[in-house]
Design a protein that fits this description.
- Four copies of one chain form a homotetramer.
- Chain A is α/β, with parallel strands linked by helices and about 350 residues long.
- Chain A has two domains: about 10-255, Type I PLP-dependent aspartate aminotransferase-like (Major domain) (Aspartate Aminotransferase, domain 2, 3-Layer(aba) Sandwich), CATH 3.40.640.10; about 255-340, Alpha-Beta Complex (Aspartate Aminotransferase, domain 1).
- The first copy, chain A, has helices spanning about 15-20, 35-45, 60-70, 85, 90-95, 115-125, 150-165, 175-180, 225-230, 240-250, 255-275, 295-305, 330-340, and strands at about 50-55, 75-80, 100-105, 135-140, 165-170, 195-200, 210-215, 280, 290-295, 310, 320.
- In chain A, a hairpin with a 7-residue loop joins strand 8 (about 280) and strand 9.
- The longest helix of chain A is centred in the C-terminal third of the chain and has 21 residues, at about 255-275.
- Chains in contact: A-B, A-C, A-D, B-C, B-D, C-D.
């Protein structure tokens, strides 16, 4: 039992099997292999559009690489104050962009408030040589409080940002969980909303280490530059076929969404069960597989005694993350222990 | 049949099996898992010293990360003109160090000439504010012409460099092949020669994607900084256990050296066989698994017709790389075809 | 008449005369000249301490150079949301530090609120590899709303910052104005408060182009690194004597404070005169030579008709900046026009 | 008497006088002043073309800023092995470009050998993601051995470079001396030869601190980016009028060329006088105001005893630099002492 993070979970066996299958004889290096080509086609089908894609092995790498082709060194990236790119990547965006500035915006439940965005756009002119011009809006979907922006909420942010000439980056480390939550198509949650570059994560949802940077047609002309940055950052793996193989299995027959739905359902059961206990209440709406809940001291103590594996979050809540392999029995055990 | 590069070869099945074995339940993220700890212990045993180690998934990442904690942004790294860090990493060392300068040195067969080193040290003062001071000597072992520096050759370079206050980086993408070639211990080819940081590569010799940056005691105090740089560069994988597992199997019971010896032996057979043909001669001594040979037009044509898979090298030779899984039958076929 | 900025004002004739006097025959380059040495001695006397100093020609350069030896590339600099380093330097701190992150803090009248500082220190751990550790607190004195931190206010910020291990940078583009406002010694407003590095500006107060980066004893060991960064940034002027000559005249016989007092007095007269008009009120306390005032539409119109030269500030106020050469007659003219 | 460098010389009085004249009342900041506009017009006239220009206070800043808009972070700059940008700028080009690589080329007398250039272009492909593509050829005029490339020599380098798609940067720290040497027009030595960006230096030839980055029409569209980089590097001086004023006087009525001719004539007299002495011979042709000469031990000793002020150069010669204010009497004294 472990709710610390979906990165402590193992990989789904289908992905390991696909790596084994890809381990057959010689294959071209650096992404020119047939498995990589197949995944590219799968993604075009799933996203119903032309696109360019490259693979990495961490979400931090994907975000930083994507931002490095969207934002110039002397420009600014707008994001939520709690965004992973702001809080949890040790300055990777600043490093990869050559010094771009991140402007943290406020908003409840880790969702950027539209007012905060429009105020920032008003305060930071894009034609004043002394000021750092905003060039990118970065949105996390799921976000850092486990919430999914609805399509309307995305429109309310992306609309004004696009009008101001910004490009849109989506940190989709838990894109599949958000997709399962919203029940819409991948296209409807990305380029149809105005997203230019999507970082699509599989690692937190069943992969060993598989992340993708997807450039939609609006920025596909930057793909050559993106590949150069990938190489220069040491993220162009010689034997890329093994990363591609993970995506191949993950996307096949809807496995990615099955796993996301399972994780979300576990999150929901856990949230519902804990939120009914006296002195406990959800800190944020639970849209996906993450539960942020304020626990009574008694409940917190019981769950620690059980070894349930969760984090004390900076906002005072406890964070539980369900994964694709969380079982009902594990949740039952947690809820039983919580009740005392 | 494919001699284009050892990165086109598949992975050894033991490594895939170890990844499968590691895929058992939950494990701490970011390198805090038990497999990573076990590999650290294995390396201490094999290198007969205390050390710090972290894992990456590409040789470029390893080299650039190591150099970033050895060289300051306004300093200089000395390396051979043909070094991978100079020629084949798209400026990764410049990127990770924040702008350090690489000074290319000459020398036959991709070995830095001791004279070239001492001249560079004389020309570039370390106390003149206008000039960029040398801080690192980087040596590739095997080097880019497939040669292994002997221990004496290493001493002839590292001695003066250390005297001038430089730190020593070894690019060991094919360290195991060099070790098999020299027949000495890992310690004798690294820290006992004065190497401060070693990039130890497994990918070219049987792994899927597994590289290690090893800091020996002289620079172990920089490990915290190295980890921060690893995170900031997106190279701290959430599920690090799968990289560690590859190393675990690779180092177990001497597999790494068995594979290196096999690849070297294939290289030797190929070199010996081709070099006897009329109009063909080795461009560089063949110490490991790489063969650089000038082919007569007839032989070149026959091998292309066979689809042998080799590169036309910038120096006019043809490069063949044998891998851990190259078979005698494949080499026989090449030699037979070459003879016409 | 021009209240747009103290950078639109001419230089004091004494400084031009000193440059002429320095233009006598040959002199060593790059700051090794006797005038530079004399200024160093003057500063040691004035600040009552040992120190290291180098000269630049812009406040942005001084701030960025100072920060580059105080903050590592993967660290964080805390400053007010309206700080010049955050708002008006086009990302120079990010550029010079190699990608450090600026965390904007809130507080009324451009003064960092102590609560905002302690909250930031609590939220950003310095030992978590994923998060960017705070290493520097930057304080502007005068600040961007024309206010001077009192000594107690400085203590309330610097105390907790030092306790958390941060180093203290003071942006003193208008240090002399703040000094005149507080009526204390240079030492009492800098190193005796815990300031490690001071950017002392003369350009806004009578110089042509003369700024100094002063390292106090706590960080004097970084002077060699600072010089290297100065050279690398193109800020080590070949004929440095002409910048030093400006400082020499500026600091001589208290000229710098005389000029600051004159500018402050002009600011005070302007503030007092405008604030009594109906519908007009000061947006921020006027401690030095800058006046931020909300004008009634009638007054604003009259002053524009006069061509008084002021800026509409983002917060809705009008900014007037008095300089060392602002005359009483100019202020009388403004006040008379404002009254209609 | 001082032949150490033209940067140890004082400024021409006309330039100081022009600064005094510019010190009249208020003027717009950051280069929007009328003097700056007048210089821009002067340069358009002199260079017989449209152009963009900005001012800096050091040659290192000019070179690095110009290169930062010509070369991308993951590209390569070709220059002579002894070029100032390679040897004497503490890595400023790497810093400003965000990590571009400098490839040092060989050639006698600090002139890039055309063969070395074409070989480099052949060795470094521009479409191979692993290799760093050449984007800029940088030429020093005068070069670091005091030589002036003839127009034919410039064509022999710039032709192949342009054909390979490179942009051309000219380090003209001593452009005026080269112009006086060749006796051609500014246009014939710059954009008519294919130069895209020229760093025009006045500091070594009579200014206090005045350098210009000139973008010719081929790259004028990068001027906005150049200004942003200038600001971000702290090189956009608040009171830019004082730098512009220096250029204004320097370019007026051909003063710049008069000063260059005087310095060159002094260099020539010194070279001719010393070269006739037994055991002395010029190390490089003397085209401008710099003399590189191998001295007999006796002559060297006599000149040191005189305190003539010269440098022992790394190539074993002695470097004497004449300036605009070197007098015939000073040279007579040197020659007399040299003869013993």
């Amino acid at each position: 039992m472990n709710f610390l993070s979906d990165t402590t979970a193992p990989a789904h066996p289908d992905l390991l099997a696909a790596m084994g299958a890809a381990n057959d004889g010689f294959a071209p290096s650096y992404g020119a292999d047939p498995v990589s080509a197949r995944v590219r086609d799968r993604l075009k089908d799933l996203f119903e559009t032309d696109l360019e894609v490259l693979f990495t092995v961490s979400g931090t790498a994907s975000n930083a690489l994507a931002l490095s082709v969207l934002a110039e060194p002397d420009s600014m990236i707008l994001c939520h104050d709690e965004a992973h790119i702001q809080r949890d990547e040790r300055g990777a965006p600043e490093f990869f962009t050559g010094g771009a500035k991140l402007l943290p915006l406020h908003g409840a439940h880790a969702k950027i408030a539209p007012d905060a965005l429009t105020q920032a756009l008003a305060e930071w002119p894009d034609d004043f040589v002394h000021a750092t011009p905003p060039q990118v809006l970065s949105i996390s979907q799921l976000n850092e409080s486990g919430g999914a922006y609805t399509r309307d909420e995305l429109d309310a942010l992306i609309g004004p940002a696009k009008e101001a000439g910004l490009r849109i980056h989506m940190d989709g480390a838990r894109f599949s969980n958000a997709l399962a939550a919203l029940g819409c198509t991948p296209a409807e949650m990305s380029w149809k909303r105005g997203v230019d570059a999507l970082c699509l994560g599989a690692t937190k949802n069943g992969a060993l280490a598989a992340e993708a940077v997807i450039l939609f047609p609006t920025v596909m002309d930057r793909f050559g530059k993106l590949q150069a940055r990938q190489k220069r950052a040491g993220h162009m793996l010689p034997k890329m076929r093994y990363v591609a193989a993970q995506f191949d299995a993950w996307l096949k027959d809807g496995l990615w969404l099955d796993l996301a739905r399972a994780a979300n359902a576990s999150g929901r059961r856990l949230a519902d069960g804990l939120a009914t206990l006296p002195g406990c209440e959800l800190a944020h709406p639970c849209d996906g597989n993450e539960v942020f809940i304020r626990l009574s001291p008694e409940v917190a103590e019981r769950l620690q005694a059980l070894g349930a594996g969760f984090y004390a979050w900076p906002d005072g809540s406890a964070r539980f993350v369900a994964s694709w392999c969380t079982t009902d029995a594990e949740i039952d055990a947690v809820l039983k222990a919580a009740k005392g």
